[in-house]
Amino acid sequence: MAKLLFLQDLEYEFLGPMYVSSMLKKHGHKVLMRVGSGLKDFRSTLGSFKPDFVAFSIMSGSHHWALNMAREVKREYGIANIFGGPHPTYFPDFIQEEGVDIIVRGEGERACLELMDRFDKNEDYLELKNLWVSRNNRVFKNELRCLDDDLDLYPFADRELYLDLNGKIDLSVRNIIASRGCPWHCTFCFNDSMRELYNDKGKYVRIRQIDKVIEESIYLRDTAKARILYFVDDVFGLNSKWLYEFLPKFKEKVGLPFICLVRADEICRNDKYASYLADCGCVLACFGIESGDEHIRGKILNKNLTNDEIYKAAQRLHAAGLKFRTFNILGLPGETLEEAISTVKINIDIKTDYPWCSIFLPFPGTKLTEYAKNAGYLNSDYNMDSLARSFYAKSSLSSHPNINQIQNLQSFFQTAVLWPWTFGIIKLLIRLPRNIFFTLWFGLVYFVVCVKSEKRGFFRTFYFALRNYQRLMKKDKKE
Q: Domain span at residue 369?
């Protein structure tokens, strides 16, 4: 049988590789995952496992490390590579990069299985759907296959794949999905682009069977020793009939606390929604505000969410005793300092328990990035290589009023929301030049909020953050 080795530099469990792995293993292929920073970390496995392919599941920004690693492996071991995940899906010209052999676009379970089956039988795979293949200076581009309507045809995500992380990160909080896809059209999100890719290729939003989600949850509780489940669906419980049937079953048969992503307007549609979540084990509900300015949120971000709905949703969550996290973005195209401050204010008003805020990171391919380009907020030559290293780095916009103060405000966003009495002082501090003390303070508060909100182990999360910060600094020095 064919052998596939995933390589990754971030100490984190990603569901994409786990789903691919479970599909391949179910059909007899062998799959391993190794997590490290350099080739030296993988030499032992490359020598003993002798994979037929090395694979990388990459987001935009992480593709630089993966590409360099693939080249090193190919140069020293002669092993071909496969790239999947968001970056090659949305930017398939990645196949033109020197050393790249295969990219998998879109959902990769069946495409990877067919690829491994063909390779095992010594059959060619140049025409397989979802694959773009580079061979002999020629690229073979294939269309996407239709989406599977029934997600439960896939085996459960392979929870044994990330054995490398045992003892390194807190694995008592485990990710799970009950659905794929999102019906909304926010301009800062890639979902619109994905929906267009799969136009006329099946139903984009799909929800799993209740009993299967319950079964996987029980496995995570009893075998994987999970103490909290994190439903990482774009929006949890898109179908209210499904949700109200699922929740009491989950409470009765699983009984674990859980975290989920919701929308404020969905909470408003049913006055029992928040209390029902809380009664059935939800310990944290997360929803996006993005901007405190209703015009920006509606016209620029296409969020279609009113201030009244945000206030009403928060009121219901508080009444249910359910803590919540909000997602916010500062430094949006054309945003004034006063508009940025309004985002802090609305979070203070609704008494957000766990605020989260980033600097706008313009991902090429999203409608918001195109808007920023067309409006002159981004250089015309802005591309994937222009991406900042994280959501918390400096703004990528070339033209923006008061950007330095807005960047500083992001560093103190959580502080202002959690301790409103500091807001007046913060308004003065943000006028100062950006400095290392602002960054360190942000990192400290961010870490504490993350640990408290997701109930993660303090020390393991601290060492995880420290190790990944060190890796980030090493990358910056190399660049």
A: 224-232+257-478
